[in-house]
Design goal:
single chain; alpha/beta; Rossmann fold; 2 domains; 7-stranded parallel sheet; 18 helices; 14 strands; globular
């Protein structure tokens, strides 16, 4: 039987014990720790009241919103194939809580810490038939203990970046039992399949099925009403900058300041990745320092503004549709480039910072001519000047901009179908009738 190592269990317990102390200086850790308080009891209460023993239970887990979007399209497809099943959803990051609440599942909540004293009673209560992890967020204690009970363990939208810390010692050794417990892994691409095998997933259990996030993104864009008020906040000279960090905002505000002097009709919609009060105030100070119009916060906006500062979450995917072009944050720091697919699905050209190579989608968009990357420096002009010239070109040549946007949209359309393929592959892992054997309570 596969088991996690004593070293992993010690590390997991230490991490859980330190969470309150880390949370004292890190707001996101604090929010996650608070959210996990009582999570086990909430899951057990739901199971006692609403778990139907005759129905197969499918449990999807995704760390945050990005992984959740990849899981969502597969979940919906599998629900259509198995309407008799019960579906539940867990997440780790506090940023995913609002997203989880809107999913069509019987129960959604935080995943408790990955320690036996939390995982065993959780599995005893839920008795899942199928446990599905999205992308790479696999928790070894949960995976191995679920497999020991007879639960099938799957990975969907599985992708491993070449620089992933999970591929290096000691993480690779500590996590190996969890990956070895995987019954079926649906990888995005062949390179991901090879790296999954290095992590410990048996190669004969890996299939390349594409990225279901393409389906999820396309469905979200299609579902936005044409009269959505958010779509009225942009215009033909508007750049929507999404999921930005301070390093992105320094470039954006510098570029906007240079452009605004020449093209006063230009507009910027700025959507910080973490719109905390402190972050919003810092952006406002930087805008003032650059001599820009005072930012208008979305919560106070009555219409378009030269500089719109978004102070709420959950609206970025729609706001991309208000712009003529898009900038995606994360490419100037270590956080990693955020999703480039949402703006591409709106058929607008995309740009981002120089550190994009861990994003498969960014590479595909660049190859297709639907995106442009800013340079890190060297012989190139500063990134802000590059962005300013790019933005001005998009304003001056509408047809070229639209053609670039169509190439971006074509990339999304080419990737459609992975969700259905993945859901079909999961179907064979579920029992087909109430009389079939199901995972036993330990």
């Amino acid at each position: 039987m596969l088991r996690t190592s004593g070293t992993y269990r010690i590390a997991a317990r230490v991490g859980a014990a330190l969470a309150p102390a880390v949370g004292a200086i890190h707001a996101k850790t604090r929010a996650g720790h608070v959210g996990r308080r009582g999570a086990l009891e909430r899951w057990r209460t739901w199971a006692a009241r609403a778990r139907h023993p005759e129905a197969p239970l499918v449990w999807f887990h995704a760390s945050s919103v990005g992984e959740g979007l990849q899981a969502e399209s597969v979940l919906r497809q599998l629900q259509a194939l198995r309407p008799d099943g019960q579906f539940v959803y867990s997440h780790f990051s506090p940023s995913a809580a609002p997203f989880a609440r809107r999913l069509p599942v019987a129960m959604a909540d935080y995943l408790p810490y990955d320690v036996p004293e939390m995982i065993d009673p959780l599995l005893d209560a839920l008795r899942p038939d199928l446990l599905v992890f999205a992308k790479l967020d696999l928790w070894p204690e949960l995976a191995t203990r679920a497999a020991a009970r007879g639960t099938r363990v799957a990975l969907v939208a599985a992708t491993v970046s070449p620089g992933s810390g999970r591929l290096r010692w000691p993480a690779r050794r500590l996590l190996a039992p969890g990956y070895a417990a995987v019954t079926h892994a649906a990888a995005i691409a062949e390179a991901d399949a090879e790296r999954l095998a290095r992590l410990g997933v048996p190669p004969d259990r890996i299939t390349v099925l594409g990225d279901p996030r393409y389906d999820s993104v396309a469905a979200r864009v299609q579902a936005v009403p044409t009269n959505d008020p958010l779509l009225q906040l942009g215009g033909p000279s508007t750049l929507v900058a999404g999921s930005t960090w301070p390093s992105d905002e320094a470039v954006l505000l510098d570029a906007f300041a240079g452009l605004h002097q020449k093209r006063p009709e230009a507009r910027l919609i700025l959507v910080p990745h973490e719109p905390t009060l402190a972050h919003l105030a810092a952006v406002e100070r930087e805008a003032e320092r650059h001599g820009l119009p005072r930012p208008v916060r979305l919560s106070a906006a009555s219409g378009p503004a030269p500089l719109l500062l978004v102070d709420r979450v959950g609206v970025l995917a729609t706001l991309y549709g208000a712009g003529a072009a898009a900038y995606v944050g994360g490419g100037f720091g270590r956080a990693g480039l955020h999703s480039v697919l949402e703006p591409a699905a709106w058929a607008v050209p995309v740009t981002f910072g120089p550190y994009w190579r861990n994003s498969h989608d960014a590479g595909v968009l660049l190859t297709a001519g639907g995106a442009e990357a800013l340079a890190a420096g060297g012989d190139e002009p500063p990134a802000a000047r590059q962005l300013q010239h790019m933005w001005e070109r998009w304003i001056d040549d509408n047809e070229a901009r639209r053609a670039q946007g169509r190439r971006a949209r074509a990339v999304v359309e080419h990737g459609l179908g992975a969700a259905a393929r993945t859901a079909t592959s999961l179907l064979s892992l579920l029992r087909t009738s109430p009389t079939e054997a199901r995972p036993a309570q330990a």
